[in-house]
Amino acid sequence: MNNITLAIKDIRKVLEDKISTSKATCDVYGENETYFDHMPPDAVAYPETTVEVSQIVKICAKHDCPIIPWGVGTSLEGHSLAPRGGVTIDLSRMNQVLEIKSEDLLAIVQPGLAREKLNEELRATGLFFPVDPGANASIGGMAATRASGTTAVRYGTMRENVLALEVVLADGSVIRTGSQAKKSSAGYDLTKLFVGSEGTLGIITELTISLKGKPEAVAAGVCEFTSVKAAVNAVISAIQLGIPMARIELIDEVSIRAINAYSKLNYPEKPHLFMEFHGSDIGVKDQSGTMEEIIEEFGGGPFRWSMRPEDQTKLWAARHQAYYATKTLFPGKQGMSTDVCVPISELAKAITDTQHDLEKFNVIGAIIGHVGDGNFHTLMFSDPNDPEDLELNQMIADRMAKRALEVGGTITGEHGIGMGKIKHMAREHGDAMSLMVNLKRSFDPKNIMNPGKMLNIN
Amino acid sequence: MNNITLAIKDIRKVLEDKISTSKATCDVYGENETYFDHMPPDAVAYPETTVEVSQIVKICAKHDCPIIPWGVGTSLEGHSLAPRGGVTIDLSRMNQVLEIKSEDLLAIVQPGLAREKLNEELRATGLFFPVDPGANASIGGMAATRASGTTAVRYGTMRENVLALEVVLADGSVIRTGSQAKKSSAGYDLTKLFVGSEGTLGIITELTISLKGKPEAVAAGVCEFTSVKAAVNAVISAIQLGIPMARIELIDEVSIRAINAYSKLNYPEKPHLFMEFHGSDIGVKDQSGTMEEIIEEFGGGPFRWSMRPEDQTKLWAARHQAYYATKTLFPGKQGMSTDVCVPISELAKAITDTQHDLEKFNVIGAIIGHVGDGNFHTLMFSDPNDPEDLELNQMIADRMAKRALEVGGTITGEHGIGMGKIKHMAREHGDAMSLMVNLKRSFDPKNIMNPGKMLNIN
Fold it and tell me: Cα–Cα–Cα angle for B333, B335, B339, nearest 5°?
């Protein structure tokens, strides 16, 4: 028997029927939301406790068996695939809210808990978890990829909203990082090291996350512009004035067309900003009033406000469905979502350069962006049976990444590296790459923790 | 010649007169702001470039010579002392603002730049650097200790405000971490790992930091309360309501007495909150109005507003001088500032427990706190010639730290570990301690980077 088979056999002794090697099951976990090949694991384990996760990891460490943590599988960079086989650890049975400490604005949750479920459970408290990547991802997966999304401009990313972790390390030992204090200067910031580590340093088994009070007032609205550039310049102006926007999203013409078709809406086919303001009644009026002035200055308008909660929900649902909406415009094709983030002064140029590339290479791409953070995505589509088609998308994605680096940006604002962006890591990090590799080696000397992701370890 | 002497000889070959071994000089760098013994280095080097820092570190690595980075020397936990001798690297000649990117709300600065100097240089831009630990510390030192202070409740700590770093590692190699993008999911968060690492993993030689737009309106004010508990409960209420306070400081009776004497003021000798609100004219009125209602609810008042900038400056100068003001009440004695941070629901109890300890053990202590973050300090004083006096202060500090941990808090909110709190690290971090030790060993196998700080490495 090979090492993986031996590991599975030993895990079965401990977990009994909470591990499956059926082809149908493994195939499900070998799928992905985007353009990567099918890469199934050899088995899928369903631990229900930290102790069980630790047992699995100890066995895999003994047998040098790859471990792939799994939340919901919404990654766009192949994080949850099994390129070297091994055991996928599906954490969906560890999906409880363990404690809500309303007075301290925090909750302790398990990693398999989905984001929407968390907010449902918080409903009665008047609090909410602010990070919103669109997809109904698991909180553990969001932490592992340092996810963010539409509200990061106001509330920060997972980096800012994870206070403490329980982590199972590569030898199966269990540690706790961080505390319930809002800030600390006590030692190395291990919490921030595990956030964004994509399962390559350890498996997150518990998270302490910060919550926010639901704002007294919410105003949402959309506004069209004659060009992407004008829309972005309005955003830059608002950021520099310090307007505390809760959401500020750019949706280009192609995305508007997709959203209109998918969500049965009829926005004019022009670049739009989708916005939301949170605060007191007076605060929201003040913010949105200033924003209207800025928008007018940049030739945008008219402003269409959604003041009723149900209309706001509809507006953001339409935005969140943009990826799937755009996909339906291209039946049978596979999608790719790029994800760069640049200093905001470079944003208009980064987007228009991308638009020029799309035109030049005759590729249809939809651009949406968390523009308040300088972060945007291009959704592109390719025929799964035509490798050249995918290569063309790849080329455009690569050019975006390179241009982002040239202006001091990053190759990924929120999707992570996974398998898709390893090739750009050295370009972004230079000599710091060897430090990352050493770090990985010191945490996971056998390279069993999500191998083949984020870094190439020889 | 011993290893340190050999290192100094080699450094002199490269830096010529930019290294001093004079006893008078070394004695200055062996001093500290608080109760630690005199621990001078064997030499002090004054590099002017990253290349020179790298050269020094390479030589020290060759000779196993301890390296102690030095900013301004305002640490309260002995970070800049030389318990094992070696070479102190004074970074004060690397004190330039290298670039201000106003549109992107960021600046690139050298580590020896002092905080007040930075804000002077920013004056014409309409921007400011928000982190304010009180002392006129160096930006590099602030990053190294993960400093924060009065404004962290609104603008975050150094953790949130450092975007990118240049660091000289223990072998003298130079790396860059982070980028100018507001967020990134590209690999391990090395920036956050070096922030707060107290010079034990590398020497920070350049920082990219985030700036904020100066608010359109600022309102500051003070308000007395009948008890610390009432004041803290008012703060908890304000935090839960989401009032975006820019500063919210608790000053107890003893501190008020000291401030009155030192700054020639006449506040009533009662616990006070010192507050500041930033925003638009309307926003500030809205926030401060809500705050007045809360304060009334908790029996506080009257509110004394300082609306003129010069009065606001005077108010915060008085607050910032609290440490020195309290010290002058105890001529000839040495001060100790404790620093714990707890979940905010535990704050009132943490402070009143501390007050009970002070009474019970008959120690005079002044309590001040960044109460919006759950962070507070007790300033205590001891006769430098009476070891029992210092032990008594230590005991009270230790009891504060232990109680903070019991309620999910941390042993230091912002001062760091240095030499003073190593003994509590294992209690806070448990099994994660061995991970921190491994991390330190993998970054600095010879233990030459600020040895004897933060961790005990055998």
Answer: 165
Indicate the angle between helix axes A432-443 and B432-443, nearest 10 degrees. Answer: 140
Q: Give the number of domains in chain A.
A: 4
Same domain, A121 and A71: no
Q: Identify which of A49, A276, A35, A12 has the alpha carbon closest to the alpha carbon of residue A153.
A: A276
Q: What is the ipTM of this complex?
A: 0.97
Would residue A431 count as lying in a domain? no
Q: With CB atoms and an 8 Å threshold, state whether B345 touches A196.
A: no
Same domain (yes/no): A111, A198? yes
Q: Residue B164's domain spans which residues?
A: 97-213
A189 and B193 within 8 Å at the Cβ level: the answer is yes
CB within 8 Å: B179 and A241: no
pLDDT tens, position by position, A80-122: 999 999 999 999 999 999 999 999 999 999 999 999 999 999 9
Q: What is the predicted pLDDT for the residue at A108? A: 98
In a mutational test of the A interface, the residue from B185, B198, B441 whose CB has the highest number of chain A CBs within 10 Å is B185
Residues of A in contact with B180 (CB under 8 A): 342-343, 407-409
Query: Which residue of chain B has the CA closest to A210?
Result: B343
Answer whether A186 sits within 8 Å of B411, measured CB to CB: yes
8 Å CB contact between B453 and B198: yes
Per-residue confidence (pLDDT) for residue A17, from 0 to 100:
96
Residue B1: the pLDDT is: 75
Q: For residue A307, what pLDDT is reported?
A: 87
Residues A114 and A194 in one domain: yes
Query: Given B169, B414, B436, which is nearest A185 (Cβ)?
Result: B414
Residue B404 lies in a domain: yes
Question: B192 to chain A nearest CA, in Å?
Answer: 7
Tens digits of residue pLDDT in A14-51: 999 999 999 999 999 999 989 999 999 999 999 999 99
Kindly report the pTM of this predicted structure: 0.97
Structure tokens given for A217: 């007032």
- Report helix, strand and coil shares of chain A as percent, to nearest 5: 40, 20, 40
Instruction: Kindly state whether residues B107 and B206 are assigned to the same domain.
Output: yes
Q: Both B222 and B312 in a single domain?
A: yes
Kindly state whether residue A180 falls inside one of the protein's structural domains: yes
pLDDT value at residue A424 = 97
CATH number at residue A37: 3.30.43.10
Same domain, A103 and A187: yes
| DSSP string across B3-64 | HHHHHHHHHHHHHGGGEE--HHHHHHHT--SSSPPP---SEEE---SHHHHHHHHHHHHHHT
Task: Give the Cα separation of A71 and A69 in Å (integer).
Answer: 7
User: Given an 8 Å threshold on Cβ–Cβ distance, is A454 in contact with B187?
Assistant: yes
Yes or no, beta carbons of B431 and A173 under 8 Å apart: yes
In this structure, what DSSP letter does residue A372 have?
G
| Least Cα separation, residue B268 to chain A (angstroms) | 31
Same domain, B258 and B209: no
Q: Indicate the residue of B239, B435, B440 with minimum beta-carbon distance to A175.
A: B435
In a domain, B446, yes or no: no
Residue where a domain stops, chosen among B26, B57, B92: B92
- Choose among A187, A339, A345: nearest Cβ to B429: A187
CATH assignment at residue A279: 3.30.70.3450
User: A355-377 pLDDT, tens per residue?
Assistant: 999 999 999 899 999 999 999 99
Alpha helices in A145-252 (DSSP H): 152-155, 158-161, 190-194, 228-240
Cβ atoms within 10 Å, residue A406: 12
Distance from CA of B176 to the nearest CA of A (A): 6
User: Which one of B324, B340, B367 terminates a domain?
Assistant: B324
CA nearest to B101 within chain A: A345
Contact check, Cβ <8 Å, A341/B197: no
Whether residues B172 and B260 fall in one domain:
no
